[in-house]
Amino acid sequence: MTDLTTPPRGPEDDDPRALAAEYALGLLTEEERTAFEARMDAEPDLRAEVASWQEHFATLVIDDIEEVAPSAQLKTRLDAKLFSSREPSFWQQIWPYGLGGIAAALVLWAAITFGVVTPEEDALRADLVAELAPTPDGDGLSLRAEVDTTLGAVQVIRATGAPPEGRVFELWLIAGDAAPVSLGLLDEDASTIIDLPENLLALLPGALLAISDEPPGGSPTGAPTGAVRAAGPLTST
Amino acid sequence: MTPQEEVEHLIARVAMGDRAAFTSLYDRTSAKLFGVCLRVLNDRAEAEEVLQEVFVTVWNKADSYKVNGYSPMTWLITITRNRAVDRRRVLKRPPAPIETADLMPDSKPGPEASAVAASDARHIRACMDELPRARAHLVRRAYLDGDSYADLAEATGVNLNTIRTWLRRSLIALRECLSR
Description:
The structure holds two protein chains of two kinds.
Chain A: H1 16-25, H2 30-42, H3 44-64, H4 72-83, H5 90-113, E1 128-134, E2 142-148, E3 153-160, E4 168-174, E5 181-185, E6 191-195, H6 198-201, E7 208-214, E8 228-233, E9 235-236
Antiparallel strand pairs in A: 1-2, 1-8, 1-9, 2-3, 3-6, 4-5, 4-7, 7-8
Chain B: H1 3-15, H2 19-41, H3 44-61, H4 72-91, H5 113-119, H6 124-130, H7 133-144, H8 149-156, H9 160-178
């Protein structure tokens, strides 16, 4: 037992597939792991090889490992740990804006009903509107969205505020409990008109619209990845 | 929606901070993931500790899920397995012994090997069954129990270099079978 750390050289030592598997299994030494990670950055195939091993090994888990229910208290402890702190969730962040939007809509309705203001003639005949109020991350942002469900389009008017340097604004529809659906990116101009897919039109009344900032080209994941900057519910005009 | 799409959808909603989705995801996956923790740690209290950390990570990191390209269960299992293995190494739990008789390099493939292999050659289980049983056992110990080379050397009494050579050859054989 002279040297337990250096393996003998063999044909398998130069095989990157074995190395990728050893990496996935966590069998490499600290030094080997660092070297392998540097190599992976340069060789996407190697990263794919690791991912493929992870998929296979996970299948082994699905096949071989029995399900065992953890104690019921665990979920309670988990919820206490995650949700009793001050970090508000996305839903917590946006619900006050929902209420604010309803209040704004009521004021608007009253103003129109009592003839204080008259809605201007627009390219779109808006039958749903949302005032998007800024979240704590959306300092100085003021947006209004007007939906013409007959035409199937939404116009977003950005009165004040801009996305952070190197980011773009993305518009999301959140209908009920469903995951947010991207409606598209906002132009750099103050006004953007986005066509709406027909299957979404029925979901719009009462749904929330939200704006997040995303990398150029929009969220890479299909779900918001940046901070939610403004949000508000769609209400009938 | 397939079960996979459902879990993916739940992760997407968790990424938005949706607590109801988090609870659904927990209800659907915690028993499997707890099984993983228990297998590696063989200790209920430690396993629950790790499972809790795993779900804290899931809540905090769900938005990075899509980027890594894993399927949803693989992502969850990989996080869980790696956390449990880290914990096991911190605790310095000795590995369970492996019978020397099980390690004869010339052990024949497992009994169901040929039948399963014929029906689904690219599935890892079938490919594992094509390995000599002892070698397959080492691979399972490395992944499912989180044994390191040192653990396997200790468990078998075989020197570490030999273990490493065996395991690497097994991994390459496995890989060749999987890509057939």
